[in-house]
Amino acid sequence: MQALVIAAHGSHLNPGSSEPTFAHADTIRATGAFDEVREAFWKEEPSFREVLRTLESEAVYVVPLFVSEGYFTERVIPRELRLAGWDVDDWDSDGTDADHATLTATDVGKTVHYCGPVGTHDAMGDVIVERARSITEREDLTDFGLAVVGHGTERNENSAKAIYYHADRLRASGLFADVRAVFMDEEPEVDDVATLFETDDVVVVPLFVADGFHTREDIPEDMGLTDDYREGYDVPTAVDSVDIWYAGAVGTEPLVADVILERAADAGADVTDAIKAVRERTRGGSDANPDAAAGESR
Q: Are the beta carbons of 279 and 228 closer than 8 angstroms?
């Protein structure tokens, strides 16, 4: 038997933060690829510490639904799962290369295939493109600029690395006229997004797992889409003569379920048929592959 655990942050303050986790778990559960599928959270139940005890499977694939490598993926989750011998050097990562490590959970004796975060997987580029196509309802976006938004923080340099990684790959793909990484708390700032591009249209996609205060309130106001998020705004909204197409958190895109499965597949899970089924169900007919377009691979 094999099980999948999707590990996410959760929130005591924003009850909607866990909704994407449950939605992606339901999508994967419906494929039948795993005997058991569980959601686990840091700030909600079931907790990271208890989730393995709820499983009968001896082999467990744990996929963190986080944007970047850092404190939670490198310390909190391995500690709470009690992974014997865990060492972040097992990933041999420079901040975007985390793959997987196979360890034993000491208290339950299960084999845990611990995967890198969803947000740094190459397939997340497909999700960003799908998000852009969904909000614009256009397949061809070669005349559009794309802003990939991250939080940015001095506490975790890898937070920005994930944003730049996807922006660089998508720029090389030629799918957009220009692609830039922008941030809430670092330069270049999302406040200036309308002035950073020479295109008449810019799609803004936040690389956040769930819609919350930042994506629903801060970013729209910072970009000048509205003075008060409670009053709403048009999509697109003209800011300094540039049409801004704001897409909301990328983690809510159904295609993220595919990235979760890709992470598990990289760790050895037999999910080939499930990946195909999820793509057919969630992709909406798009075929965006930055690697194929750019002629490069990770």
A: no
Q: What tokens were used for 140?
A: 């061809």
Are 176 and 210 in contact, with CB atoms under 8 Å apart? no
Q: What is the CATH number of the domain that holds 233?
A: 3.40.50.1400
Please indicate, yes or no, whether residues 190 and 214 belong to a single structural domain of this protein: yes
DSSP H helical segments within the chain, as ranges?
A: 19-31, 48-51, 71, 77-81, 124-136, 157-173, 193-196, 213, 219-223, 256-266, 272-282, 290-294
Q: What angle do CA 70, 48, 22 make, to 5 degrees?
A: 95
For the chain, helix (H) and strand (E) counts, in that order, are 12, 11
Same domain, 116 and 129: no
- SS3 (DSSP) at 36: strand
Report the number of distinct structural domains present in the chain. 2
Residues 203-237: tens digit of each pLDDT: 999 999 998 888 999 999 999 999 999 999 999 99
- The sign of the dihedral angle between the CA atoms of 270, 124, 136, 159 is positive
